[in-house]
Amino acid sequence: METYVIHNPKIWEHLGDISFYNYNYYRNPETGEILLEECDDDVCCSYYVIEGNTKRYVGTCYWDEVQWGESEEDVKLYEY
């Protein structure tokens, strides 16, 4: 699996109408790509690209590494 990078989290839109508790959806308005962020109650979040009715795992990171709507700094996800 190649390393997945979330580019410029600041521009990603939170899809609040379909997100809940530790399952948040984000959409890149430039590419249309949708990511699902599944977080546990401790410190880790796993990320999946949504492709139609399926999700494809792309990596994991600590919950505070991705600053949605705030930071333009790219985030490289870890493969676990």
Question: What report would you give on this structure?
Answer:
- It is a single chain.
- Strands 2-3-4-5-6 form a five-stranded antiparallel β-sheet, with no helix packed on it.
- It has 80 residues and is mainly beta.
- Strand 4 (34-39) and strand 5 (44-51) form a beta hairpin.
- The chain is built from no helices and seven strands.
- Helix content is 0%, strand content 42%.
Write the layout of secondary structure elements.
Elements: E1 5-6, E2 13-14, E3 23-27, E4 34-39, E5 44-51, E6 54-62, E7 75-76
Antiparallel strand pairs: 1-7, 2-3, 3-4, 4-5, 5-6
Task: State the main characteristics.
single chain; mainly beta; two-stranded antiparallel ribbon; 80 residues; 5-stranded antiparallel beta sheet
Shape: globular
Main sheet attributes: strand count, strand direction, barrel closure: 5 strands, antiparallel
Provide the residue-averaged pLDDT. 91
Alpha-carbon distance between the termini?
A: 10 Å
What structural category characterises the helix and strand content?
Answer: mainly beta
| CA gyration radius, whole angstroms | 12 Å
Low-confidence regions? none
**Major sheet: order of its strands?**
2-3-4-5-6
Number of strands: 7
Instruction: Indicate the percent of residues in helices.
Output: under 10%
Q: What is the tally of helical segments? A: 0
Share in β-strands: 35-45%
Helix and strand sequence:
EEEEEEE
